[in-house]
Amino acid sequence: MKFVESSVDVRYAETDQMGVVYHANYLVWFEIGRTKLIEHLGFKYADMEREGILSPVTDIQASYKKPLTYGQKAHIKTAVKEYSGIKVVYYYEIFNDQNELCVTGESTHVCVKKENFRPISIKKYFPEWHEAYMEMSRTE
């Protein structure tokens, strides 16, 4: 897989009573990684939304391996695991400062028309995105 990397500082407000990152924050970090990947490809979600197209999550999964704590940096690696022209599955790995794998996950998205939430063909509506996603989803 071809990964795009980003990172975030673990803030105190993102930790729970045990002093580790609260599990739901990883989903926010998945979104940061996904947005960074899209920007790396030269696109922006906002441009898609201006065209009346949204990209809701239809499925999400996370596996917790090792906790992250306040003061560490979360290093996010994001890839396109699967792309069908309609559905995109993103894959995530989050590491700590010692390069230890802390979380893996996937999120599945489809593009839909804002007014009726009917799926659209990315290839038809956004051919440049389609080509970029085809390239990202190719295995090396």
The number of E-state strands comes to: 7
Portion of residues within helices:
25-40%
Q: What best-fitting shape do the alpha-carbon axes yield? A: elongated
Q: What is the H/E string? A: EHHEEEEEEHH
Structural class computed from helices and strand pairing: alpha+beta
User: How would you sum up the major sheet?
Assistant: 5 strands, antiparallel
Q: Give the low-confidence spans.
A: none
Distance between the termini: 7 Å
CATH topology: Thiol Ester Dehydrase, Chain A
Strand content: 25-35%
**How confident is the prediction overall: mean pLDDT?**
95
**CATH secondary-structure class:** Alpha Beta
Structure report:
The protein has a single domain (4-137), classed as Thiol Ester Dehydrase, Chain A, CATH 3.10.129.10. It is an alpha+beta fold. It is elongated and about 45 Å long. The strands form 2 sheets. Strands 1-4-5-6-3 form a 5-stranded antiparallel β-sheet. It starts with a strand and ends with a helix. The chain is built from 4 helices and 7 strands; from the N terminus they run E-H-H-E-E-E-E-E-E-H-H. It has helices at residues 25-40, 45-50, 122-125, 127-137, and strands spanning 4-9, 53-54, 57-64, 73-83, 87-95, 101-110, 112-113. The model has no long low-confidence stretch (mean pLDDT 95). Pfam families: 4HBT_2. InterPro entries: 4-hydroxybenzoyl-CoA_TE, HotDog_dom_sf, YbgC/YbaW. Keywords: Hydrolase. This is Acyl-CoA thioester hydrolase. GO terms for molecular function: hydrolase activity.
